[in-house]
Amino acid sequence: MKKQITLLFGIMCFALAVNAQYYYFPHINAGQNPGGLNTDDEYPVAGGQPAGWTSIHPGSATTPQWSTTVTIPFAFSFNGAAVTNYKVSTTGVLTFTTGAATPPPVANVALPSALVPDNSVCCWGISGSGTNDNICTKTFGTAPNRQHWISFTSYTDPGNTAYTYYSIVLEESTNKIYVVDQRNGGTALTLTIGVQINATTAVSVAGSPNISQYAGADPSPADNSYWEFIYGSQPANDVALSSLNYTQYVTTPTNVTLSGVITNLGSSAITTVDLKYQLNGTTYTDTKTGLNIAPLGTYNFTHATPINASAVGTYSFNFWADLAGDANHINDSLNGVINYLPFLPTKRIVFEEATGTWCGWCPRGAVYMDSLRNLHTRKLC
Known about the structure:
This protein has one helix and 24 strands. By secondary structure, it is mainly β. The radius of gyration is 24 Å and the shape is globular. Mean pLDDT is 90; it is low at 1-20.
């Protein structure tokens, strides 16, 4: 079984401008939205968008425009200062400088840029020129752990007819900012993704202003990627237990090996780390030395001591990574459960197919069912 938190990182990309007060983590191919609060499918306002979204700009913007000004539904700080309102351009820029007059143009450039107002968040380089191109908002979760989403739904890829869905997310309590790549119609984009403090100070994703999309046409969050922007200085030491792998159901007596992945979220390389788990009040430690895990690098591990139990029952354990000087213990641990059974039943997969004289697509189902039976040595039922 694989226990996993969303710490799926792409490339190492700390492109911090001098004196910028933000750093970021990429979550490429995360397969979900940040925090998992927003599970809504991604559709146009007039084409199946889930309930609860509010349009703040209706599209058809042949020239760049600002949305209406919106009040943030919870206390939020940007760059260490409280902000209460924002507005959004039809070119993918959210700004807390609500008095800004001129919206950024469609043609995006690298940050920092005088074309972008102070105190802004960018997924700059999309266009709200189409009739289905809405900017919509919705708040997910419960206080004090809410997320306020600002979504560019069915937006236009400039110079093409393809659609794209991106969102900017404000998170309560943590004051984190996310830019989410949700859904795309196939044409390569060239975006600027980042946070701008002013015309001389910004932090942007490496590759801006030519960031292309990662998400495909799937309307669910299953193919989503996102970038997480955090205010403050990146800690030197921060290890995260990204995933934990083990067999959940076994027969006694059997050793169960624990393996997984840790990720270095600090600015300094990790050379030594203790991998520990606690079972029935006893802690088992495996010290890994001689490592050189670079910032945003990962390390695949196998714990030296497997779990062994001679009696039938359920064994719950906690597994964590212990790094000297770790500044953030929230992401260090995962819980696990192993079920020791007297025997394991044989499992079979059953497919059921029904049809009717009205169904023009059903012959395809019969073909695929037959293909599955031929592909596998054992019949499916």
